[in-house]
Amino acid sequence: xxxxxxxxxxxxxxxxxxxxxxxxxxxxxxxxxxxxxxxxxxxxxxxxxxxxxxxxxxxxxxxxxxxxxxxxxxxxxxxxxxxxxxxxxxxxxxxxxxxxxxxxxxxxxxxxxxxxxxxxxxxxxxxxxxxxxxxxxxxxxxxxxxxxxxxxxxxxxxxxxxxxxxxxxxxxxxxxxxxxxxxxxxxxxxxxxxxxxxxxxxxxxxxxxxxxxxxxxxxxxxxxxxxxxxxxxxxxxxxxxxxxxxxxxx
Length: 250
Fold this sequence. Notes:
Blueprint: H1 2-19, H2 23-49, E1 57-71, E2 80-94, E3 97-111, E4 124-143, E5 148-168, H3 180-183, E6 190-201, E7 206-215, H4 222-225, E8 238-249
Antiparallel strand pairs: 1-2, 1-8, 2-3, 3-4, 4-5, 5-6, 6-7, 7-8
Helix pairs in contact: 1-2
């Protein structure tokens, strides 16, 4: 546990360095992160013990690619690519119902169409999150020969912590648009999202997953930030994220 604690403490220090988050909010998130980690470790232990009897707990890994956008950034479309990956703990409640807990890393943000870093063309906002996700999962489409459900639908919530931010924006601020770099001190370091999606199992232990995240809170709250930019109009920002990936269960 000492190694795990040092890892989380280092991650907290980096989060404060990049985002300027308060010590209280950082501590709350990482306490939740530690709790989710403990739950997954317990699920892993019970998963190995449960092979000789009815399986109640399981674990897994997942990874994939995502596209994101931000409402209020004066750009349109899911044009910002990124990766996501994580660990999953599973509780098998009923044959057709499961509860999943996840620890994950994802690259989100926004990007203008035709963005090219080599010649300073376009704008790009990179927001990297560490997240804790809780999902209720419903199973369907039972395979009668191999005896597993091939389709899963899920929904839940995700609590994310902004652990890295980078703005690439050569544009000049005016009354309609504010440079991303000028807003860095005001980005919300906590993301609370609604999550829905589906898994398609190609085997008993692996498959493909599609996910949609919609932030419930704002990345930039115009009412809070506007007083610092009295001669410019600030728009509130809210994030959206879609991803396609693969998973493997142990």
